[in-house]
Design brief:
Elements lengths: L9 H7 L10 E3 L6 E3 L9 E2 L2 E2 L8
Antiparallel strand pairs: 1-2, 3-4
Length: about 60
């Protein structure tokens, strides 16, 4: 069974983990209502996505 011969130093372990930090969500602005929305998500305000209305809002109905 493969077992490490030496212990990894703290520096080496932390260098490896440097990319594990959380990154902020990428927000885009809805072209219809200008609300900040995460990318590739239907706008919760107007229901607009990819150039068309996906969900009818209660205001227009």
């Amino acid at each position: 069974m493969a077992v490490p011969k030496r212990r990894h130093s703290n520096s080496r372990s932390r260098k490896r983990r440097s990319h594990d930090a959380k990154k902020p969500r990428q927000l885009a602005f809805c072209p219809k209502c200008s609300t900040a929305v995460p990318q590739h998500v239907i706008c919760p305000n107007c229901g607009y996505y990819m150039g068309r209305v996906m969900v009818e809002s209660e205001e227009t109905a």
